[in-house]
Amino acid sequence: MNNQNYISLSEPFLQGNEKKYVNECLDSGWISALGKFVTDFERNFASYTGSQYAVAVVNGTSALHLALLTAGVSANDEVFIPTLTFIAPVNAISYANAHPVFIDIDNKTLGISPDAVEEFISENCDYKNGVLTNRLTGRKISAIISVHILGHSCRMAEIRELAEKYKLKWIEDAAEAIGTLCDGKHAGTFAEIGCFSFNGNKTLTTGGGGMLVTDNEYLAKRLRHLSTQAKSDELYYTHDFVGYNYRMSNIQAAIGLAQLEYIEKTIAAKREIQARYTKEFGSIEGISIFNEQPWCRSNCWLSLISFTSDRRADFISFMQSKGIQVRPLWELNNRHPMYKNCSHGNLSNAENLYEKSVCIPCSQKMTMADTDRVIAAVKSFIKA
Ligand SMILES: Cc1ncc(COP(=O)(O)O)c(C=O)c1O
What we know:
Bound molecules: pyridoxal-5'-phosphate
Distance between the termini: 22 Å
CATH architecture of the largest domain: 3-Layer(aba) Sandwich
Structural class: alpha+beta
Shape: globular
């Protein structure tokens, strides 16, 4: 199989003004962390998502780190997080010297289950004077991170209720969910702070990059300040906090701005691929395809199929032999050596889904013929 015929899960597809804008950076010499494209990208991203403020950073992980620090998660606090997610938000909790509490997922959305959070609280926590304490560790649980998985929205109204009821800071990890809508509102704009990733495999990519959005002016200023080494005087280089070198470069922003101009076209192409999979796989016995809830418009970052019996490993080898990239979901975070002693609730939904499911390509770059090839390969594996 030559490389041209290889079908990747999700690849960059640069088809707009990317080259033109990057050339403007190169011609003008504005290639670093300041410049017109950073400002334009932030402004247009805020406008696209319906946020008041946007702050561009070097990647989604740094966005999550700053969000936790700015929301007021303190050292030794604990944070609710779904066990089924890419590890970045869990590591960000560690960077803030806090600890994760792993929660199960909701099968219909793949996001953190509000019912499972309530169950963990009723079995293991005390709530007194506005403070939620984990009896298993004696620590305060101060925040919840809802992660939108594979582009599908979490159950936002119920997560909001939980956050209000237990006075939890709420951060949204929308790294995989640019353009995803929940009841018509953009993922990333429900919590006080939302975080996005523009990693190479994301729906909008800047090679590597991230964005924070918020409607709170104070938080926006704080996020920007912390992302620029907390510099308080431009001339004399005074600093009033331990800051970070997290600002996005003008070159990255130039690529992001160009991609944002046609983001709806990108999402439409991915939704089309997902619709074809749904049509073709919907009635096949032995597999099911994950689909959006009626209140959600998913950006269909990746498509997910699940087997009724554990054929995951065989399926992965089979698809690889056909030159098609597929991938299991992420190993559950409570199983990693550095997190295996953290508190967790019942995780049976996540365990079950992880064992049986595989992500299949949903790349805007795919042609009809590519999608046909994926469909034919899946069907021939099922028949075998
Ligand atoms: C859910 C989630 N959160 C955070 C990140 C981290 O983003 P980045 O790779 O830009 O640091 C990613 C993906 O990369 C992700 O999938």
